[in-house]
Amino acid sequence: MTRAGQLLAALGFLALGFAPSPPPAKLYVLAVGGGPEPKHNQVAIESNVRYFDRAKPTTADLRVLFTSGDKNEENVLCLDDKGKEYYRKPDLPRLDGPAHLETVKTELANLAEKVKQNPSSGAFLYFTGHGSPNRAGNLNNNHFDLWDKQRLTVTDLAAALASFPKQQPVTLLMVECYSGSFGNVLFEGGLPDAPLAEGKVCGFFASVQQRMAAGCTPNVNEAEYRDFTGYFLAALTGKDRLGRDAGGADYDKNGRIGMDEAFAYCLLNDNSIDTPVCTSDVFLRRFVTTADEQIMATPFSEVRKWARPAQLVALDGLSSALKLEGEDRLQTAYKTFRGNPVDADKMPAVHAIRFVRLAKTIVLQHQLAETGAPDIKRRFADLLKLEAANPLRN
Fold first, then answer.
1. What's the order of all strands across the beta sheet hosting 131-132?
2. What's the half-sphere exposure (Cβ side, CA atoms, 13 Å) at 213?
């Protein structure tokens, strides 16, 4: 048995048939981008849409909603070489309509119908722009900022996803601030205390629900961009946004790179304020409720033993970046994390947040394997399969 197989067997998921889900034969894609208004529609957001277009399979069916939907409106904010702001028209491979709430809902409904008509297909939803915390303080229902200051909430997206076929994969990639809240689409109605929703949905998000994310700059020099989109897509496709070869992320040495490995690559390499979240993180925190203090008392050697290959690389790399030593590394990092404000943007604090969250996920997945209910373990194994897939590469 391979090292990966031994680890999965120890976790109790191998017997459940853990293996990456194959990529869909046909991929239907919706990209939604832009800020709520021109002054917050920075050129980096537009660059993300172009990069995603290049990263998707050439056979994918792509629809793009961006800002006002008018390709002749000068609403993209840029900086010239003297630091002066100016606006220009969108420069996109296609533009199918405005990033308005009703348009987004209509496109999602149309996408669901396309997927239904093609049983071997799947969907990929990409959102790039700005996000805001819930105005009433309920961070479980944050929103993506649409054009004209409209909003797409977690509950809005969960309602739209409910119309998708239950046996066909839907992948979310959301890179706005406070985006981790959208992991709650795992649950009926997007409510974190509701039952698990039916369906094959997984997602990757640039930040925890309490924090901002990187990537909204008017700087036109794409070589200087440091954001979740850039690192995640580079890991998945092997090419960065400038077309250069990206570093390898095949951590389990099986000859392919899954989204779970791209996620681990981001945890380790994303040189920004991002604090990435994935749906399996959200799942575990809902169904395993061990107190943080107990988790952080776990010896580091035990956490390493329970980690999957990609998690192990990120865990060791973050530990090294933080210069941690000894068996009490979790407690040490946890004190650093708790001692910094939630919006701390210095890399030691960001690395500490990533390290603590990753270690917690590893401990929780071990506890789920040891004591979880069979149906919850099965659903978690199904989610891991989805996260280990790579819809952008066959």
1. 131-132, 143-145, 151-153
2. 32
Strands 26-34 and 61-66, bridge-based pairing:
parallel
To the question of domain 19-283 being in CATH 3.40.50, the answer is: yes
Per-domain residue ranges of the chain:
19-283
What does the pLDDT profile of the chain (394 residues) look like in tens digits?
334 444 444 445 533 345 677 778 899 999 999 999 999 999 999 999 999 999 999 999 999 999 999 999 999 999 999 999 999 999 999 999 999 999 999 999 999 999 999 999 999 999 999 999 999 999 999 999 999 999 999 999 999 999 999 999 999 999 999 999 999 999 999 999 999 999 999 999 999 999 999 999 999 999 999 999 999 999 999 999 999 998 789 999 999 999 999 999 999 999 999 999 999 999 999 999 999 999 999 999 999 999 999 999 999 999 999 999 999 999 999 988 876 655 466 778 999 999 999 999 999 999 999 999 999 999 999 999 999 999 998 6
User: One-letter amino acid identity for 370?
Assistant: E
pTM greater than 0.90: yes
